[in-house]
User: Which sequence fits this backbone?
C-alpha cells in the first residue's frame, strides 16, 4: 500500500460522491481521481489552509465529463442586539455560497473555486453591531463596535496541485480574490465556527486576510506537512463591497502546517502586510499567528470541532498586541448543537476611538459567547436550523464610561441554512 492510499481509503472519494448524490442520481461512470493532489484538495477549508482531514465534505456533488462539481454554503439571517452606550440592534444576514470544479490535469489535479457573499446586501450601515470589533472603514471612518460585511467576491481562485510522488506535491494557488498563507482558515470557513454567525473580535489579528485582492501562493505538500509562501496585495477591502480592488503585490506571508493525525491540524504563520488599513496606507503591519484545530465525529451522528488560535500584530511605530481565541462546536446528535467562543484581545485606545490621552493606552478586552443551535429536518440537501447566541464582554478598567458597564452584553437570534452534509444529516458510516 502506498502512502497516498493510506491518506484516505482508496474508495473514499467514490463512496463520498455516491453518498452525497441526490436520491435517484446515477453514480459517476468515471473512476474518481484518488491521486495525492485530489486528496490534498479535500483537506482545504478555503484558500490553501488545511482543516482536519476527518472533517466530512459538505454540499452537492455532481460530475460533468472529467469534472467534479461541488456546491456548498452557509447562510445566517438574524436579529443582532448589542448592549450599552456603544451598542445597537439590527437585522442582519451573513454567510457565503461556493462552487468548485476540479479534475485530473497532467500530472496533477486542478480546481477552480468561486465563492460569493450576500453580505453587501444583507449588512446595513457599513457593518453589523458587534461590541469591541474594529477593522476596515465606512464613510471614510474606521468601523468601531461594528463588523464589516464581507465582499460579494470572497474567493475567485485556481489551484493546481502537481504530484511529485505518491505523497508529495507542489501546489500553486492564483487568486484575483483569495486567502494568502497567513493564519488559520478564515472564521466563516471553520467547522468549529459553523454554528456561530458572529465574527471574532480578534479577526484583524488572526484571519482577516481571508479576502485579499490578488494572491499568489506556492506550497510544498507532504502527507503530514505543508510549507507555503504567498506574495499578495495586503490592502484590506475598501467599503465598496462589490468590486475587485487590485493593488500592487506588496505583502508577503509564509505558513507551516502540520497534520500528525487526521483529526488534528496545526499551523504557524508570519506575514508582512503593507498598509492594510485604507486610512493608514503607509503603516505596515507584521503579523504572527499560530493555531490548532481538532475534529472528532461521534457515533451519535454529531461531532466535536475545536480551534485554538493566537494572533499578534505589530503596527509600524506602535506597540505590538496579542489576541487569543478558543472556539468549539459540539454537535450532540446531529440535531442539538452547543457552541462557544472565548477571546482575549489587546486593542489600542485610538482603535476604539477613545478621547484624548486614552488613545495612547492599550486595553485588555475579553468576550465569552455561548450558543445553542437546533437543527430541523434536512430538505433537498439543505439543513435548516434556529439558534441563539449570547455574549458577555469583559472590559479593562477605565472603559465603563464608554460602554455603560465593564460587562456589556450582546445577543443574536438567528436562522441558519447549511449544506446538509456538514451537519448531522450526513451519514458518515
Ligand atoms: Cu472576514
Assistant:
Amino acid at each position: 500500500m502506498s502512502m497516498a492510499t493510506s491518506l484516505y481509503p482508496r474508495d473514499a472519494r467514490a463512496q463520498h460522491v455516491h453518498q452525497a448524490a441526490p436520491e435517484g442520481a446515477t453514480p459517476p461512470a468515471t473512476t474518481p481521481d484518488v491521486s495525492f493532489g485530489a486528496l490534498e484538495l479535500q483537506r482545504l477549508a478555503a484558500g490553501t489552509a488545511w482543516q482536519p482531514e476527518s472533517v466530512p465534505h459538505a454540499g452537492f456533488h455532481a460530475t460533468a465529463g472529467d469534472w467534479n462539481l461541488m456546491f456548498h454554503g452557509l447562510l445566517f439571517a438574524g436579529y443582532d442586539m448589542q448592549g450599552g452606550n456603544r451598542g445597537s440592534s439590527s437585522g442582519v444576514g451573513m454567510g457565503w455560497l461556493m462552487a468548485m470544479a476540479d479534475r485530473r490535469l497532467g500530472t496533477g489535479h486542478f480546481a477552480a473555486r468561486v465563492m460569493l457573499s450576500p453580505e453587501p446586501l444583507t449588512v446595513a450601515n457599513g457593518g453589523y453591531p458587534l461590541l469591541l470589533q474594529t477593522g476596515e472603514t465606512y464613510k471614510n471612518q474606521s468601523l468601531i463596535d461594528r463588523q464589516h460585511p464581507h465582499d460579494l467576491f470572497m474567493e475567485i481562485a485556481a489551484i493546481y496541485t502537481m504530484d511529485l510522488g505518491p505523497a508529495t506535491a507542489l501546489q500553486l494557488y492564483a487568486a484575483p480574490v483569495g486567502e494568502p498563507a497567513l493564519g488559520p482558515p478564515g472564521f466563516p470557513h471553520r467547522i468549529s465556527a459553523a454554528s456561530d454567525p458572529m465574527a471574532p473580535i480578534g479577526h484583524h489579528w488572526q484571519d482577516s486576510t481571508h479576502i485579499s485582492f490578488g494572491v499568489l501562493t506556492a506550497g510544498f505538500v507532504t502527507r503530514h506537512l505543508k510549507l507555503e509562501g504567498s506574495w499578495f496585495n495586503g490592502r484590506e477591502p475598501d467599503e465598496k463591497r462589490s468590486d475587485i480592488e487590485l493593488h500592487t503585490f506588496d505583502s508577503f506571508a509564509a505558513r507551516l502546517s502540520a497534520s500528525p493525525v487526521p483529526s488534528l491540524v496545526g499551523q504557524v504563520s508570519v506575514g508582512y502586510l503593507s498598509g492594510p488599513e485604507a486610512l493608514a496606507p503607509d503603516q505596515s503591519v507584521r503579523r504572527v499567528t499560530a493555531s490548532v484545530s481538532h475534529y472528532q465525529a461521534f457515533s451519535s451522528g454529531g461531532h466535536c470541532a475545536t480551534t485554538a488560535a493566537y494572533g499578534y500584530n505589530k503596527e509600524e511605530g506602535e506597540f505590538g498586541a496579542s489576541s487569543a481565541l478558543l472556539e468549539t462546536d459540539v454537535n450532540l446528535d446531529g440535531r442539538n448543537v452547543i457552541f462557544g467562543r472565548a477571546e482575549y484581545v489587546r486593542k489600542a485606545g485610538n482603535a476604539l476611538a477613545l478621547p484624548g490621552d486614552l488613545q495612547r493606552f492599550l486595553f485588555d478586552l475579553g468576550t465569552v459567547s455561548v450558543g445553542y443551535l437546533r437543527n430541523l429536518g434536512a430538505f433537498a440537501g439543505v439543513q435548516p436550523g434556529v439558534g441563539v447566541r449570547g455574549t458577555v464582554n469583559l472590559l479593562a478598567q477605565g472603559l465603563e464610561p464608554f460602554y455603560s458597564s465593564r460587562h456589556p452584553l450582546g445577543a443574536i437570534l438567528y436562522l441558519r441554512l447549511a449544506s446538509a452534509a456538514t451537519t448531522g444529516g450526513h451519514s458518515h458510516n
